[in-house]
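Tokens as discussed.
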């Protein structure tokens, strides 16, 4: 899980989750990025998620992604990556100043060891 890091110019920031995976005891959700306060300026963010090759391609075992702003779910998607290796989903979102931003992986028992991650770049407005 990663937090927010400012770029040297001060007008952008980023957050990399790295590769995240679970084991047989993995919970239903795994937090990938958590930024408790995005800063004093509004941001436009570009978020890219990635998933490795699934262990199981059944409909009931598809990983998903959930994005929350200030505890409100603004994106909830599950299942698009079920039969492809390395599918990337990209999202562009407006994030108000001083927001809490969370990127969460929706886990399944059939694919809890499948790799996944999220990378974010934020542009202050």
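Sequence:
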């Amino acid at each position: 899980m990663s937090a927010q890091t400012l770029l040297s110019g001060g007008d952008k920031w980023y957050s990399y989750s790295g590769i995240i995976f679970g084991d047989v005891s993995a919970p239903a959700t795994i937090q990938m990025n958590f930024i408790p306060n995005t800063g004093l300026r509004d941001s436009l963010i570009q978020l890219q998620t990635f998933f490795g090759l699934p262990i199981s391609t059944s409909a009931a075992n598809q990983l998903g992604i959930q994005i929350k702003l200030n505890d409100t779910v603004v994106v909830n998607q599950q299942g698009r990556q079920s039969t492809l290796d390395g599918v990337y989903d990209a999202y562009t979102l407006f994030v108000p100043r001083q927001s809490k931003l969370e990127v969460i992986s929706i886990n399944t028992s059939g694919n809890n060891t499948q790799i996944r991650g999220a990378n974010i770049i934020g542009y202050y407005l």
